[in-house]
Amino acid sequence: MVEECTIVTTREGYTVDSCTGEVIDFEAYDSIDYSGLEYYERVSSKREKSTKEVKDTKKVVLNYLLSIMTDKEKEEFYRILNEIEKHRKADAALYLAIYEYVLEREGKTISRDYINFIKARGIGTYSIRQRKKILRQMLKDDPVVIYIYNEYSGNKEEAMVVYRLLKEYGLINGKAKKRKEILMEYLNNKELKKKLLERYYVESLVKLDVWNSNSTNFIGFFV
């Protein structure tokens, strides 16, 4: 029995002849034949090419950034990237946004070579700015942290450790101005700083002893 031809609407919104696959009565289209495989192969090829270009761009951008970042910047870059990738997939513009974000926190500016690079790759500054906005929202920039990176003239790594411990032990609170004052008090007072760090080291050793004890008991269970 010969199948009767009907007019159907595809998922894309095209009105087509079910027998010939020809698009009919559709705005902006005169007559496109979808009956053969050539159209679908062409669309599939374009999609695959586009996906490959996206992956290639990400790889090129990442390799470029790794070639110009310091070890410290790389560490911070990957720390932020790992945090962001818990919530969303990274793209080339996000890589660049993280890099610029890291530089800003260090009080540095982007170079002319960097600007030329993103222009050559065809990545717009608007898309980078949008991703930096997302970064700031997700990471919730702390003014005290920004102060440490951009203005504090002492040992920045030590200051970050002290600030983290003060927050962890509930010794620092209030608005940014007050938190900064408390932090500076600890950084400028050797005795206070020493007690804070000693507390951390002692607690770390206790945790290590407990872990070793539990591990021994766990292993002994199977002996």
Short description:
The chain is mostly helical and 223 residues long. It has helices at 38-68, 71-84, 92-105, 112-121, 125-139, 143-150, 156-168, 176-188, 190-222; strands at residues 7-9, 15-17.
Number of continuous helical runs: 9
Q: Order of strands side by side in the largest beta sheet? A: 1-2
CATH class of the largest domain: Mainly Alpha
Annotated CATH topology of the largest domain: Cyclin A, domain 1
Mean pLDDT: 77
Query: How many beta strands in the DSSP annotation?
Result: 2
Morphology call: elongated
In terms of per-residue confidence, which ranges show pLDDT below 50 for 5 or more consecutive residues?
A: 25-32, 216-223
CATH architecture of the largest domain: Orthogonal Bundle
Characterize the biggest β-sheet. 2 strands, antiparallel
What's the SSE pattern?
EEHHHHHHHHH
Number of domains: 3
Backbone structural class: mainly alpha
Radius of gyration: 29 Å
Helix proportion range = 55-70%
Beta-strand level of the residues, as a percent range? under 5%
Separation of termini?
76 Å
